[in-house]
Please model this.
Amino acid sequence: RKNLEAIIVDESYPDDVKVQAIQLFRKTNCDETRDFFMDIYQNFTQSVEVRITSYIQVMKCPTYLTIKDIKEFLKTEKVNQVGSFVWSFLTNLLKTSSPLKIELQALLGKKKLFAKLIFIKT
Model:
């Protein structure tokens, strides 16, 4: 695991290699790597692809605090492509009727999320 994390943060590796390294974590215990990928997602020096892939990894098992941090971070997002992706991802989760997503919808807090996101986007 540490070798893959080193590849992800090493600037000498191309983005496609970093993205593949992140995707190798898809079946690991996300509780152990959530903070690492949250840091990568919030790192403006990383590429759009690496940040978005890290965000997706974080969202595989988000907690209330993770959602809270993501919503707060959206207020300071500097890269439109990343911000738009996260915005779309979260709003699509709120619209889904999948029973598997109901708990996540509760974490997002429908009315509060929309009010905050609309404020951020205007």
